[in-house]
Amino acid sequence: MRMIGMGVLLCGLAVAGGCQSKLHDENKALWEQNRELQTRVDEGHGQAGQVEQLQGELAARDAKINELQNQLRAPTPGAGAQPGIEGIETSYNAAAGEMTVNLPGDVLFDSGRATLKDSAKATLNKVASAIKTDYSGKPVRVEGHSDSDPIQKTKGQWQDNRHLSMMRALEVTRYLASQGIPEKQIATSGFGDTKPRGNKKEANRRVEIVVVTR
Fold first, then answer.
1. Is 165 helix (H, G, I), strand (E, B) or coil?
2. Of 34, 205, 18, 3, whose CA–CA distance to 108 is shortest?
3. Where exactly are the structural domains of the chain?
4. Which residues in the chain come in under a pLDDT of 70?
5. Is 8 exposed, middle or buried (0-12, 13-18, 19+ CB in 10 A)?
6. pLDDT tens, 27-67?
7. Regarding the domain with residue range 90-212, which homologous superfamily does it belong to in the CATH classification?
């Protein structure tokens, strides 16, 4: 009985120390030990003191199994626990503590325009809700980007691609502010084609929302 108790204690210490890789083995071992204890209870036949002691150990072991199962359901630190928004493309820079939400320009705006599409607002609503819920008060940067193609259809409205990218970023900033994110919390920039993202034009036409997560 003392050896069983020591086994439980060591298991608890391992979990407390963050030994996530051992949780599955520990959980399996506890279930097997529980079956053995239950057999001993069933064979107790009138030995009231021993049965009561074994039943107490069973209850403690059950509680330990529940604790292990909860830990197994939780994300492993550093693997899958990165900040993100479900259904929206994000990346995370752990060194900087920054989550970047990537929003394709074609999703947000018509070609050469800086007025949000109605269809884009549901996505921005989701982003705004996540920022308010999980990162309230944290600095946010809205950064507009473009490809290097000269503006054709609306060239009378914009000085160049950088001007267009800035106005698009400002439109997103104003929309986030309308959804309850203080505008003083948001820094807005337009980079034009100075920070390309690969060779595809579609990838470069984008607005990024960078959220400081810590």
1. helix
2. 205
3. 2-73, 90-212
4. 1-32, 34-35, 37-51, 54-55, 58, 61-62, 65-81
5. middle
6. 566 666 766 766 666 665 556 566 677 667 767 766 776 66
7. OmpA-like domain (3.30.1330.60)
Residue 177 is predicted with a pLDDT of: 97
pTM of the full predicted structure?
0.62
Q: What are the structure tokens assigned to 202, written together?
A: 């579609």
> Given this model, what pLDDT does residue 173 score?
98
DSSP string, 68-108: HHHHHHSPBTTBS-S--BTTB-EEEETTTTEEEEEEEHHHH
How far, in Å, CA of 26 to CA of 4, rounded? 13
| Separation of alpha carbons 201 and 4, rounded Å | 64
Provide the pairing of β-strand 206-212 with 140-145: antiparallel
Contact 30, 49 (CB under 8 A): no
Contacts of 159 (CB under 8 A, 6+ apart): none
CA atoms within 13 A on the CB side of 95: 0
Q: What interhelical angle do 23-42 and 2-16 show, nearest 10?
A: 160
Q: Counting Cβ atoms within 10 Å, is residue 144 exposed (0-12), middle (13-18) or buried (19+)?
A: buried
Q: How many CA atoms lie within 13 A of 149 on its CB side?
A: 13
